[in-house]
Amino acid sequence: MTETNAKRLSSTGSGILSGANPVKLLLRGRAFFALIAIVIVFSLLSPNYFTASNFLIMSSHVAIYGILAIGMLLVILNGGIDLSVGSILALCGVVAGALMQGVVLKPLGVILFPPVWAVVVLTCALGAVLGALNGVLIAWFKVPAFVTTLGVMYMARGIALLMTNGLTYNNLAGRPELGNTGFDWLGFNRLAGVPISVIVLAVLAVLTGLMLARSSFGRWLYASGGNENAADLSGVPVNFVKITVYTLSGVLSAIAGLVLSSQLTSAGPTAGTTYELTAIAAVVIGGAALTGGRGTVRGTMLGAFVIGFLSDGLVIIGVSSYWQTVFTGAVIVLAVLMNTIQYGVRGVRR
């Protein structure tokens, strides 16, 4: 056996052994193990936690975080960040609420009440436009993602406040005689006992997972996130990928805004505050690298459920909301630390 072959065999053997290392197994499956631990601990602390009805209720809460986290995952895989998702959620919710209240056409002296499907389409289109604005500024004008999305965050929140004068649109259930009923369908209806919002999250997660694993766009996204210069030289349309992921993030933020407004049957300009941080936390807890090129939908969904089940569990056992913030922050810091240990210098972009 030659020296080269011996080295290859040795490296292969060490790779197999390292893959069986319990520490590395714990790091790779940390979100799953954390979720199991959360369920066990809170089930012991409260008899009301481990019930099917409670899991469905908690899952409907997680759906909003999860939808935002899917969009954030796409952006982070590209090596970027999107701080505007919470504000886009609020603005889209407010626009949906305004449309449900009726569009006043003063010159004609009439008020139009668009059907719910038109409200959904227009709201998602608004989210796409705001997301595309982020993408164009970042891809074509080379404005840093942090600055761009921070600016759009303030603009979207400000427009929502101006539209409502700081107030909230209530009673969005609609009226049968006006033909605009059904907005609460997303928030309250169930299919085979499962909340519609959870089904929406599952469908979006499956479609995104298939896109990342089976499409050319998914390969482009991982390549451009791992090394943008090398991807560009290899023929990957990096600007197209960048604009697309921010546009998709905007659309998903709009969907999350629709789900939240539907659950509350109201839409306010302060909705979604700090949700961008929750979405980032879910992606990080799920094992994605903030430097781009590493991450999965499965891990992100586990991260979203970790945050959601932890928050709801603390509420059930009567822990103060201030302590909830402390615990959530500690989980985020621990997740980043474990990411650093797992990826090491390989997670740092050169």
What is the topology?
Elements: H1 3-19, H2 22-28, H3 30-45, H4 52-77, H5 85-101, E1 103-105, E2 110-112, H6 116-139, H7 145-164, H8 185-188, E3 190-191, E4 194-195, H9 196-214, H10 216-226, H11 228-233, H12 238-264, H13 275-285, H14 297-316, H15 321-343
Antiparallel strand pairs: 1-2, 3-4
Helix pairs in contact: 3-14, 4-9, 4-12, 4-13, 4-14, 5-6, 5-7, 5-12, 6-7, 6-12, 9-10, 13-14, 13-15, 14-15
C-alpha-based Rg, rounded? 22 Å
Number of beta strands: 4
Strand order of the largest sheet: 1-2
The biggest beta sheet reads:
2 strands, antiparallel
Residue runs with pLDDT of under 50 for 5 or more positions: 1-19, 345-350
| Percent helix | over 70%
Structural class: mainly alpha
Number of helices: 15
Oligomer class: single chain
What series of H and E elements makes up the topology? HHHHHEEHHHEEHHHHHHH
**Which strand-content bin applies to the residues?**
under 5%
Q: How confident is the prediction overall: mean pLDDT?
A: 89
Q: Looking at the structure, what is the overall shape?
A: globular
**N- to C-terminal separation?**
37 Å
Description:
This protein is mainly α. 71% of the residues lie in helices and 3% in strands. It has 15 helices and 4 strands. Strands 1-2 form a two-stranded antiparallel sheet. A two-stranded antiparallel sheet has the order 3-4. α4 (52-77) runs parallel beside α9 and α5 packs parallel to α7 (145-164). The protein is globular, with a radius of gyration of 22 Å. The two termini are 37 Å apart. The model is unreliable at 1-19 and 345-350 (pLDDT under 50).
In short:
By secondary structure, the chain is mainly alpha-helical. It has helices spanning 3-19, 22-28, 30-45, 52-77, 85-101, 116-139, 145-164, 185-188, 196-214, 216-226, 228-233, 238-264, 275-285, 297-316, 321-343; strands at 103-105, 110-112, 190-191, 194-195.
